[in-house]
């Protein structure tokens, strides 16, 4: 956690509840502190916010656009709506779009049962996808000694990119292409196993919310992930002090 | 009390959803008091009958035959339930959708054939270029994701449906296993 200025407290409302925010807190942080669990997929505690997944879009009174809670600073007097039938409909649609864009075949996925996309679909009541599936052809990179990158499952949350750059400092992961053609790449599009920058630390695999980055040798539902990042970041902060 | 007329249909799926139904075990005996299985791979009925109350459909739509079966079933069923991921999403059968059909059939029936290479033209259903979930062709009343949906889930689903209710089960089950 970044250090907070304790003395500049802001008051605002989220879904009618009065809540307090420190100077530099986002709507998402304040909401979660107060038990209001706005759904997210790209957010990860300890990494920068990029508002990529759009699931945390909220309404702010007086603003005619929806704003991502993860990158919008809480402000004095703000009136935020985090849950409304309309917002939930948008969130369901986002999840449906994610399912159509790649080949998320849960039944054949090593992360089934431990997948944030799968769990979110259930939470939001997405029992089926109303849009046609695209069935795009995606590559699977199994060149790395320990890990596999399966682009069929990727949702472009870029957690891997951020943890690699911001925590490991290797900057192996990047994104190529735009829109629906965007793909995660290692180095300049080389095979992962041929990457010079990758340190084989596996942080990207740990933060991947779906079955896109996984360990080798796992069968369906066997890929579980541990969240070590808060401990790692805390250890580093303590080491600096 | 009149027994509900129940049918089950098996399209492009692995039969796992039917196995899950059978895994209700002794609960089936209790349900049998309230329902009559009028058409199913599990019973001997040649044609899908008229006037069916509930049809559970396993599998995706992958061939001309699947299309005929589901269209007829829909027309003769009051409550159509997509049972399991293949019926709901296309699932594993739909993984062939990004391979051109000619390439797929050639690989299966010619390249890898050990005897009599050649794509069958008759006697087996003709595959469609793309596998689709049920709701892309016919209206579906209840979606039951899961690969397969658990026996407990099918039990509560059937119990609700037989009691005349339409259960909202979207948040109690998920895609995959």
Notable features of this structure?
heterodimer; A: 241 residues; alpha+beta; Ubiquitin-like (UB roll); Alpha-Beta Plaits; 2 domains; 5-stranded mixed beta sheet; 10 strands; globular; B: 177 residues; alpha/beta; Rossmann fold; 5-stranded parallel beta sheet; two-stranded antiparallel ribbon; 6 helices; 30% helix
The total beta strand count of chain B reads 7
- Sequence of strands across the biggest β-sheet of chain A: 2-1-5-3-4
Mean pLDDT of chain B: 95
Structural class of the helices, strands and pairings of chain B? alpha/beta
**How many discrete domains of chain B?**
1
CATH level-3 fold name of the largest domain in chain A: Alpha-Beta Plaits
CATH class designation of the largest domain in chain A: Alpha Beta
Low-confidence segments of chain B, given as residue ranges, are none
N- to C-terminal distance of chain A: 14 Å
Spatial gap, N to C terminus of chain B: 36 Å
Q: If strands are numbered along the chain, what order do they take across the biggest sheet of chain B?
A: 2-1-3-5-7
Give the topology string of chain A: H per helix, E per strand. Answer: EEHEEEHHEEHEEHEH
Description:
The complex is a heterodimer of chains A (241) and B (177). Chain A is α+β, with helices and mostly antiparallel strands and 241 residues long. Chain A has two domains: 10-83, Ubiquitin-like (UB roll) (Roll), CATH 3.10.20.740; 107-225, 2-Layer Sandwich (Alpha-Beta Plaits). Chain A contains six helices and ten strands. Chain A has a five-stranded mixed β-sheet with strand order 2-1-5-3-4, covered by helices on one side. A three-stranded antiparallel β-sheet of chain A has the order 6-7-10. Chain A has a two-stranded antiparallel sheet with strand order 8-9. In chain A, strand 1 and strand 2 (17-21) form a beta hairpin. In chain A, helix 2 (85-101) packs antiparallel against helix 3. The mean pLDDT of chain A is 94. With 177 residues, chain B is an alpha/beta fold. Chain B has one domain: Rossmann fold, CATH 3.40.50.700. Chain B has six helices and seven strands. In chain B, the strands form two sheets. A five-stranded parallel β-sheet of chain B has the order 2-1-3-5-7. In chain B, strands 4-6 form a two-stranded antiparallel sheet. The relative contact order of chain B is 0.19. The mean pLDDT of chain B is 95. Chain A binds chain B through residues 99, 103-109, 112-113, 115, 118-119, 121-123, 125-130, 132-133, 135-137, 220-221, and chain B through 82, 85, 88-92, 94-95, 97-98, 130, 132-133, 135-136, 140, 143-145, 147, 168-171, 173-177.
């Amino acid at each position: 956690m970044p250090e907070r200025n304790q003395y500049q407290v802001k008051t605002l409302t989220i879904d009618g509840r009065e809540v307090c925010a420190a100077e530099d807190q986002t709507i998402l942080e304040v909401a979660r502190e107060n038990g209001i669990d706005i759904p997210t997929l790209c957010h990860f505690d300890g990494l920068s916010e990029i508002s990529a997944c759009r699931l945390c879009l909220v309404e702010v009174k007086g603003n005619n656009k929806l704003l991502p809670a993860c990158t919008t600073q809480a402000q004095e007097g703000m009136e935020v709506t985090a849950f409304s039938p309309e917002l939930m409909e948008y969130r369901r649609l986002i999840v449906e779009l994610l399912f159509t864009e790649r080949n998320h075949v849960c039944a054949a996925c090593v992360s089934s049962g431990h997948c944030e996309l799968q769990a979110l679909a259930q939470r939001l009541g997405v029992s089926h996808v109303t849009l046609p599936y695209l069935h795009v052809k995606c590559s699977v990179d199994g060149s790395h000694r320990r890990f596999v990158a399966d682009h069929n499952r990727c949702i472009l949350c870029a957690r891997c990119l951020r943890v690699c750059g911001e925590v490991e400092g290797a900057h192996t992961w990047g994104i190529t292409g735009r829109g629906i053609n965007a793909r995660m790449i290692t180095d300049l599009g080389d095979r992962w196993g041929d990457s010079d920058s990758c340190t084989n630390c596996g942080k990207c695999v740990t933060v991947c919310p779906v079955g896109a980055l996984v360990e080798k040798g796992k069968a369906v539902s066997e890929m579980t992930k541990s969240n070590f990042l808060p401990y790692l970041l805390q250890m580093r902060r303590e080491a600096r002090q | 009390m009149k027994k509900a007329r129940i049918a089950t249909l098996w399209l492009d799926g692995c039969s796992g959803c039917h196995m899950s139904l059978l895994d209700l075990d002794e609960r089936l005996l209790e349900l049998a008091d309230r329902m009559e299985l009028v058409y199913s791979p599990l019973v001997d009925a040649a044609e899908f009958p008229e006037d069916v109350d509930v049809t559970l459909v396993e599998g995706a739509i992958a061939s001309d035959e699947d299309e005929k079966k589901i269209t007829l079933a829909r027309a003769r069923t009051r409550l159509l339930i997509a049972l399991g991921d293949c019926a709901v999403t296309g699932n594993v059968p739909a993984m062939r959708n990004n391979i051109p059909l000619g390439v797929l059939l050639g690989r299966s029936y010619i390249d890898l054939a050990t005897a009599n290479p050649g794509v069958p033209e008759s006697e087996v259903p003709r595959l469609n270029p793309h596998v689709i979930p049920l709701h892309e062709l016919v209206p579906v009343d209840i979606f039951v994701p899961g690969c397969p949906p658990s026996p407990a889930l099918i039990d509560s689903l059937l119990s609700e449906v037989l009691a005349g209710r339409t259960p909202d089960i979207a948040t109690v089950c998920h895609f995959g296993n």
